# Entry
Amino acid sequence: MSVIICPWCQSEIIQEDGEEPEKICPVCENELDGYRTLQFNIGEDDEEDEMEDEEEERSISIDDNEDLSWMDDEEEAESSDELRRFDEALEELYDEQDLVPECPLCHEYMLEAGERLVEASEFSPRVPGLSGEPLLEAPFKLRVYVCPSCFTVHSFLGDEDRQRMVRRLSQSDKEN
# Structure
């Protein structure tokens, strides 16, 4: 048996003798070959290398001369200027925030969008058996964050309500 290590997720992939080597990692589903690797063929004819180089040059020249006439220069400049202003606005907003959480989906920083008040009619508290009191009682506030990249909305318990929950848990600990 031989072991292959996935260069993407560092998982060990065990291969039975006589089996063909895996081409895709069963854990992360990425290709196993081609990750930050260079392949050098030592001892081959120079003619083959020259032919490969010529093919590569042709493919590069085709890509370089790609027709971009569909995009107007004015549109392109306006788009890049808009993106620059967007990035600058994001940086200013991040600087104003006390907490800058990371998006759970795309790992970009999230913007604080505001607060949400959760009323008693919108919330049914769970009452754990040890204390006999709910961990969190309505009304309470949630800080709402929005990801500017994937627009995921995420919320956290507000500061006052966090402190109230901590006090409640610490008091129930003293009673037991």
Observations:
- Confidence is low (pLDDT under 50) at residues 59-66.
- Strands lie at 2-5, 12-15, 111-118, 140-146, 153-157.
- Residues 3 and 14 are 5 Å apart (CA to CA).
- Residues 100-175 form one domain.
